[in-house]
């Protein structure tokens, strides 16, 4: 089945393609972090569900490229590399402006731009574009063709409702994150060195903050930079203590 640009496809098909790419991206993130870093399951998604929307937007960006590029390799690689890098940069900038938080930071990588994007990721985006157009998207379209249009429409509607609920819950958690960090800053300004002991009073709320730290280890807050770094150190210390107990047992 020939690969078509997204603007030639029905909206519900485009939405399902977005979900599929987001799910595959989520799986990749979870496996990568689980195998090479945490050695356990960590939900790497911004949302609660098993999707990373930025991969969905990246995939759709590649499918917005002109059909003339689809039969190429090097031009397709370069175009995917450029446009997906722009998507990642804009995503980082928009999320920072909305939530005053930097969810990922590539400052420790060579050839990065403001820590929002880096050359390594850009090259991977180029490779991903070639893989999607030449291998993945034909398979995705073949898979979707197995179902009737009615089933695809209903599936898209159900998933859209679930995604909306997930998004609303996530927004609520982000609001709680800001409220908790504001209280933590007040404690930090008042108690200084005793800060880590005093914030135990926010223990239930801190679980939300710690959850975001586990998902995004390079998380940085514009408004609560020092306080968040201390909480991140607290999370690291707790993790080290847990590992020591496991080794002793």
Please describe the structure with a list of short key phrases separated by commas or semicolons.
single chain; 249 residues; mainly alpha; two-stranded antiparallel sheet; two-stranded antiparallel ribbon; 9 helices; 4 strands
Descriptive report:
- Helix 4 packs across helix 5 (119-144).
- The protein is 71% helix and 3% strand.
- The relative contact order is 0.10.
- It starts with 10 loop residues before the first helix and ends with a helix.
- The chain is mainly alpha-helical.
Concise description?
This protein has 249 residues and is mainly α. The chain is built from nine helices and four strands, in the order ααααβββααααβα.
Topology:
Elements: H1 11-38, H2 53-62, H3 67-70, H4 74-99, E1 101-102, E2 112-113, E3 117-118, H5 119-144, H6 149-191, H7 195-198, H8 203-215, E4 220-221, H9 225-248
Antiparallel strand pairs: 1-4, 2-3
Helix pairs in contact: 1-2, 1-6, 2-4, 4-5, 6-8
């Amino acid at each position: 089945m020939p690969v078509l640009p997204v603007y030639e496809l029905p909206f519900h098909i485009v939405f399902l393609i977005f979900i599929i790419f987001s799910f595959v991206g989520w799986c990749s993130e979870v496996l990568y972090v689980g195998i090479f870093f945490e050695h356990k399951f960590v939900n790497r998604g911004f949302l609660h569900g098993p999707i990373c929307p930025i991969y969905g937007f990246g995939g759709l960006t590649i499918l917005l490229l002109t059909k003339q590029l689809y039969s190429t390799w090097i031009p397709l690689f370069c175009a995917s590399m450029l446009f997906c890098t722009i998507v990642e940069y804009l995503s980082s900038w928009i999320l920072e402006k909305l939530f005053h938080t930097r969810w990922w930071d590539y400052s420790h990588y060579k050839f990065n731009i403001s820590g929002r994007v880096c050359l390594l990721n850009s090259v991977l985006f180029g490779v991903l574009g070639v893989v999607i157009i030449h291998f993945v998207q034909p398979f995705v379209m073949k898979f979707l063709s197995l179902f009737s249009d009615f089933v695809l429409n209903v599936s898209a509607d159900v998933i859209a409702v679930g995604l909306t609920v997930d998004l609303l819950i996530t927004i609520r958690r982000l609001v709680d994150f800001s409220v908790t960090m504001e209280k933590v800053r007040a404690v930090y300004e008042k108690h200084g060195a005793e800060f880590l002991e005093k914030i135990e009073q926010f223990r239930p709320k801190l679980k939300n903050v710690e959850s975001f730290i586990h998902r995004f280890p390079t998380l940085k807050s514009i408004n609560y930079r020092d306080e968040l770094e201390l909480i991140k150190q607290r999370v690291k210390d707790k993790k080290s203590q847990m590992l020591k107990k496991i080794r002793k047992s």
